[in-house]
TrEMBL record:
Its cofactor is pyridoxal 5'-phosphate. Belongs to the class-III pyridoxal-phosphate-dependent aminotransferase family. One of its GO terms (molecular function) is transaminase activity. Keywords: Aminotransferase, Pyridoxal phosphate, Transferase. It comes from Salinivibrio costicola subsp. alcaliphilus. This is Aspartate aminotransferase family protein.
Amino acid sequence: MSHVFHRHCHHLPPTIASGNGMYLIDTQGNEYLDACGGAAVSCLGHNHLAVLDAIHRQLDAIPYAHTGFFTSESSEALAKMLADLAPPSINHAYLVSGGSEAMETALKLARQYWVEVGEPQRQHFIARRQSYHGNTLGALSVGGNAWRRAPFAPLLMDTSLIAPCYAYRDQRPDETAYEYGQRVANELEAMLLEKGPETVIGFIAEPVVGATAGALTAEAGYFSRIRAICDQYNILLILDEVMCGTGRTGRFFAFEHEGIVPDIVAIAKGLAAGYQPIGATLVSDRLYEAIASGSGFFQHGHTFMAHPTACAAALATLTTLEQEGLVDAAEQQGKALKSALHHQFDSHPFVGDIRGRGLFLALELVADKTSKRPFSPELTLHQTIKKTAMHNGLMCYPMGGTIDGRQGHHILLAPPYIIESTHIAAITDKLALTLEMCLPHQ
Ligand code: PLP
């Protein structure tokens, strides 16, 4: 019996023993090709010596000191590096221990900003239906994921949800992709007018939607229209790059593809590549200065924030990404993986859409390609696919996404940026075999 409280109470996964590059190995000696970085975390692959060395050096010097008493060289250097990577208007990083904490920080910071500048009546967030921003109550409040929210709904903050940009499902035959993007972005304006813009704190979105919709990119022009609406009505734009950030899309920040700059952006998963738990909330000068020159104190904080060992791991990760040209590699290898997926699955009867950017890609599964009807949620296909893929030596990330309130299915691929062409071939082969074993035969 396991005394660990596993998320699936009746399912004990294999026990991990070691890792090497693109592979993880369990205690039975089974090897798994990592095509999803866990949950888009392991951007450097496993057991990268540069990161291990940096962690060891930090442990030898000082593993931890509370931020109420000390700052650390590793946290200062990490925040500086993030400020250098960010657009010129973003110069401060609030360092926490993961994605939910980073989003929770973003929400509280945005609220405190309006209190500091004398607009405490702003209490409302607008977010999108196909989105996940974390499992803490604040982050869950602004997420659109119905099944995750359901048991906790009475405890959640009141948030208004609008449609995401989901062209595969929602673009009409009589409009171009651009027109569709503008139409759906204008839902933000409509919601603002309904709620009263002076009551709204900000709008929250993942630039590329991860777990709830499967590497869903927006149509060109969507996010610039969103930014323009936020500016026109003076609300904050908060981007969640916990999953899609830190180079995964082929730019360090996914918003760089959109030509916009947010007021706040959260990053986490790839920040220390899984070698340590860490997240960061990057804050624009406008917000930082309002708090610094106002009360001078952000009403927030965690015991393990700016943890020196986690910061050392993140610093080594970012340095390695830069030195090994891995963000460019994510773009190049992403193109190669996407075209291999098209080659393998374009004519597959149950693969409705292949999408994503860089090494953040997904297949949307449908029971019928013409009507785009999803498979029944009762099939819990995502669980069967995950188990079968593991059996076939492949780690991929199948999820039951939400489509107009119904459950659909997709498979997310987010491999380490060190991926090579042999791995790409092995991923498509193993995935094809897995689908063959899991989906009905025509
Ligand atoms: N935001 C997004 C977009 C995520 O994908 C996740 C995790 O999957 C989170 C926030 C929450 O991060 P964490 O699980 O580290 O708390």
